UniProtKB/TrEMBL annotation:
<keyword id="KW-0175">Coiled coil</keyword>
<feature type="domain" description="Lipopolysaccharide assembly protein A">
    <location>
        <begin position="43"/>
        <end position="95"/>
    </location>
</feature>
<dbReference type="GO" id="GO:0005886">
    <property type="term" value="C:plasma membrane"/>
</dbReference>
<dbReference type="Pfam" id="PF06305">
    <property type="entry name" value="LapA_dom"/>
</dbReference>
<feature type="coiled-coil region">
    <location>
        <begin position="80"/>
        <end position="107"/>
    </location>
</feature>
<keyword id="KW-0812">Transmembrane</keyword>
<keyword id="KW-1133">Transmembrane helix</keyword>
<dbReference type="InterPro" id="IPR010445">
    <property type="entry name" value="LapA_dom"/>
</dbReference>
<feature type="transmembrane region" description="Helical">
    <location>
        <begin position="46"/>
        <end position="68"/>
    </location>
</feature>
<keyword id="KW-1003">Cell membrane</keyword>
<keyword id="KW-0472">Membrane</keyword>
<protein>
    <submittedName>
        <fullName>DUF1049 domain-containing protein</fullName>
    </submittedName>
</protein>
């Protein structure tokens, strides 16, 4: 299984490197279109290779997806945590009831009573 994972990662690396080598031409990214930049006064632009833009977009999309999913699953994690605390409380209560039930009895008889 480990070798399959290494083979997959190697193939992915080859594909990403070939994609990067094939798309090295520079592109200009602008914050707003040129027509609006004069009106708004925002003339921010940057020139990057195309593969940086593509791979950066994929990375930003993955990060946004992970954050969105983490926020969406918050209620499930909260419920699991609450139920875990409830289980601990109920176990503690059961142990207290067992101790109260076997109070004053011989320890061997209490152990045999618990086993049956």
């Amino acid at each position: 299984m480990r070798y399959i994972r290494y083979a997959f990662l190697a193939a992915l690396g080859v594909v990403l490197i070939s994609l990067s080598m094939a798309n090295r031409e520079a592109v200009t990214l602008r914050l707003v279109p040129e027509e609006l930049s004069g009106l708004l006064g925002l003339n921010w632009s940057i020139t990057l290779p195309l593969f940086v833009v593509v791979l950066g977009g994929i990375a930003v999309g993955l990060i946004l997806g992970f954050v969105w999913e983490w926020l969406r699953e918050h209620k499930h994690r909260r419920d699991a945590s609450r139920k875990s605390r409830e289980v601990v409380q109920l176990k503690r209560e059961v142990n207290q009831l067992k101790d109260h039930k076997h109070k004053g009895k011989d320890e061997v008889l209490a152990i045999l009573d618990e086993a049956s």
